[in-house]
Specification:
Elements lengths: L5 H4 L11 E11 L4 E5 L4 E8 L2 E5 L2 E5 L4 E4 L5 E5 L5 E10 L2 H10 L10 H14 L8 H30 L4 H22 L11 H7 L4 H12 L3 H17 L6 H7 L5 H12 L3 H11 L2
Antiparallel strand pairs: 1-8, 2-7, 3-6, 3-8, 4-5, 4-7
Protein name: Transcriptional regulator, AraC family
Keywords: Cytoplasm, DNA-binding, Transcription, Transcription regulation
InterPro entries: AraC-bd, AraC_XylS_family_regulators, Homeodomain-like_sf, HTH-like, HTH_AraC, RmlC-like_jellyroll, Tscrpt_reg_AraC-type_HTH
Length: 299
């Protein structure tokens, strides 16, 4: 490769971009009262738009009811089951997306609740993009032009979700809710500790992955941390850390030169077999199978 000329080094350049954004399973469906989708987990985010009727979702042992125009964002690796509880039936749109940018995934996890808030300015944009995607289901053929148009909508959806995140950050900076501020501080601390660990995954740094270490660093008790965090995020701090581990593991599995045992160690598992069992719980497939599926899709 030729060396970069000095004059070129001094120019302001656009960033190199190598982002993999995948989507699958996009569909619209009408179901009758009593319909039930059994408990499942996915390796990707799942976004749903309720078109008509009422859906009941069991998520992390909590029950939520969603109605028309609600937009639901279910994180990867989180068990959930859906049921139609309206007499007139249920109509919904659903699709999954996977983005190999851990930082973006962390932002979505931290600032996007299960039910997106309609008061957030980005909600309308997100809803409209989903309606545009629904319109494509009327097609009986998907050529390259249609696929490019759908990919553009996906990129717009990612941008709108990040706009949603930015508004949530802004609202947080102006809030006086003690529990909300504390929960965000806990999430940030867990993220920072995990990031530090992945940079040096040594036995000496294993305490960074301990919830007791996080609580102590914030000068709060473990029970206070659990209560405040679960109130805002509907999951435990440990579950949130597991989500970060899962996202980071998926990112590294896209890099063929990294052995699975190396990835296991980087995300905090000394035993590769333990990591494989845990990954299978998150993704319903082994790390080896996940890597193979991603490499096959990239061909």
């Amino acid at each position: 490769m030729n060396p970069t000329p000095e004059w070129l080094e001094q120019l302001v350049k656009l960033p190199d971009i190598d982002i993999n954004l995948k989507t699958f399973g996009g569909h619209k469906q009408k179901v009758l009262s009593g319909w039930r989708a059994p408990q499942e987990t996915h390796f990707a985010f799942e976004i749903m738009l309720i078109i008509a009727g009422r859906q009941r979702t069991i998520f992390e042992a909590s029950q939520f009811d969603f109605v028309a125009n609600d937009v639901i964002l279910i994180p990867p690796g989180r068990a959930h089951e859906n049921t139609c509880v309206s007499g007139e039936g249920l109509e919904y749109f659903c699709m999954h997306f996977d983005l190999d940018e851990p930082e973006v995934q962390q932002q979505l996890l931290m600032h996007c609740p299960l039910l997106l808030k309609k008061a957030n300015p980005a909600y309308q944009v997100i809803s409209q993009i989903l309606q545009h995607l629904i319109a494509f289901l009327a097609n009986d053929h998907f050529g390259i032009k249609e696929k490019i148009a759908i990919e553009i909508l996906l990129l717009e959806l990612m941008s709108a979700l990040l706009d949603y995140v930015e508004d949530e950050k802004l609202q947080l900076s102006h809030t006086d809710s003690t529990s909300l501020v504390l929960a965000k501080s806990i999430a940030e601390s867990i993220q920072q500790n995990f990031r530090m660990y992945t940079q040096d995954p040594s036995e000496e740094n294993e305490e960074l992955l301990s919830m007791s270490y996080t609580a102590h660093s914030l000068n709060i008790s473990n029970s206070t941390m659990l209560t405040a965090f679960k109130k805002v995020y509907s999951c435990s701090p440990k579950k949130y850390l597991d989500q970060l581990r899962f996202n980071q593991a998926k990112f590294y599995l896209h890099q063929p030169k990294l052995a699975i045992c190396e990835i296991a160690e980087i995300v905090g598992y000394r035993n590769a077999a333990h990591f494989t069992r845990q990954f299978r719980k998150w993704a319903n497939m082994s790390p080896k199978d996940y890597r193979g599926a991603q490499l096959e899709a990239a061909k």
